[in-house]
Amino acid sequence: MATPGILYVTMQPKPGLPLQQFHEWYNNEHGPTRLRLPQIFTNGLRFQATDGQEPTFLAVYDVTSMSYLETETYTSLRANRSTREAETIGQVDVKRYFWDLDWTKQSPLYIPIEQLTDEEGEGIVLVAIEFKPTEAENAAAEIKKWYEEEHGEMLSKVPGWLRSRLLKTSSLEPGAAPSFLSLHEFARENGLGGPEHKASMSTPRAAEILGKYATLTSRRVYSLFYIFGPAPRDLQNLSQLPPAASTFQAGDARTFTSNSPAPVIQSYVTASDGLSIPYKLEGNPDPKAPTIAFCNSLLTSLDMWDPVIAILKTQKPHYRILRYDTRGRHAIPAPPQPATMDMLADDLSAVLAALRIPALDTLIGVSMGGATTLKFALKYPGQLRKFVACDFNAASSAVNTGAWQERIGVAETPLADGAPGIQKLAAQTVERWFHPDTVQAQKDTVDWMTRMVAANDVQGFRYSCQALWDYDMKAQMKDCKVPGLLVVGEGDGKGALVKAMDGFKGDLGEAGAELAVVPNAGHLPMCENPAGFWEAVEKFL
């Protein structure tokens, strides 16, 4: 039988360890690593003491079953610590405790903290009281009965009360002296110290419990200041570190942080079907900064946005910038499933959830990413303020489906010299995508994009391109509540896509959308003519 409980960790950085370094390590490495085990940890919360006592910092993780903390899945985290983690922990006085959940009571309006936004959760008060049962007969049982029959009900009358829990020394700590820990959560504005709170501790039964059955050993008061997600996102503390202290690469080479020359986090999110989605977070390090996200086209990577993001950082430095590799760029879960527009929109929603971004200010996507952008606006309007959809069609066509099937054949057929067939597809694709002027005058851009396409996972391409085979969003566009701008390169499809997008621009929402045409560009105007693309979108941003 599963026994839920908590992992309770107190921490006091030693003199000489900068707080920014301590927080950046904990927020970008230690915590997310644990939240990537949702079968074990349902949340991870950081608190800071407000009572003037030490240890100053507390981390609390809800555990689905305490037995999981004895499995290799969990113990290997400690056994395989990074060098940085080992060095940092050596500079922190850390005490870890295991507690089994014994009783809980919560407000009917209680929302688990991990389901709140960072702004909603910030400042929630946690009162932690530790006490030991005396040697009186049935002391532990009497303590629990008091909580169940009187104390919990009286605490629930305190203004701002959210939840109370009673925990006991875990069975994972055999031989440890039995103790109780009571945790009480309150809203920022609360009645702690007020008449209702004083009354909860002033009854005859409370006096009996504290005089006969329980010995108080500790009372601490904390304030919530950080909620973990399974993806590192703390640019703020990273931005305050010197380059040498900021540069970190995880042992699996899938997470990288640096503040040289500016803060950047590269890591990954795992979707519900096991898909690994790499992402890159940079720009304004303020966690409350508006976030602009970019959705790449089929066969390209998140790096395709480099030219535009270089302009964006200079012209609009208030943005936090997120980009991610769309489904199909890398290996996909087994058994492979054909992608759909719904799946692509869900992937972005999963990335935002893992990064605890409740809503984007702007989403920009191109080609398959443009269709994904529109689908995301239709499916998740509450997570998006505005969007820019580029060089895409609102519906698929049988002609395009046949073309994709032919391209899969090219990618999967080795060349005569044994080279992968996707190299041939890459050359064909870039020639089809780019404006003739780009092909003639921008050899470096052509070579860059050809290498990017050739590096795509072939099976990923086979299954992700099927999202473009059978979809139609035209009927839904009228109901779109999110304002959008449409953008297209003048030479895309030799001008055919300009006509197609001009044909459906009026179908978006109640008032339709503007269509901006980027000169001297084909299918990827942000790569071929980044200055022209920026001119097209700047006012909308």
The major pleated sheet works out as: 10 strands, mixed
Identify the CATH homologous superfamily of the largest domain. Alpha/Beta hydrolase fold, catalytic domain
Q: Tally of extended strands?
A: 18
By DSSP (H or I, 4+ residues per run), the number of helices equals: 21
Spatial strand sequence of the major β-sheet: 9-10-11-12-14-13-15-16-17-18
- The total domain count is 2
Class by alpha and beta content: alpha+beta
Q: What is the strand content?
A: 15-25%
CATH topology title of the largest domain: Rossmann fold
CATH architecture group name of the largest domain: 3-Layer(aba) Sandwich
Mean pLDDT, nearest integer?
96
Overall 3D form: elongated
| Euclidean distance between termini CA atoms | 54 Å
Radius of gyration, in Å, reads: 28 Å
Spans of at least 5 consecutive residues with low confidence: none
Helical content stands at 25-40%
Which features does this protein show?
single chain, 541 residues, 2 domains, 10-stranded mixed β-sheet, 8-stranded antiparallel barrel, 35% helix
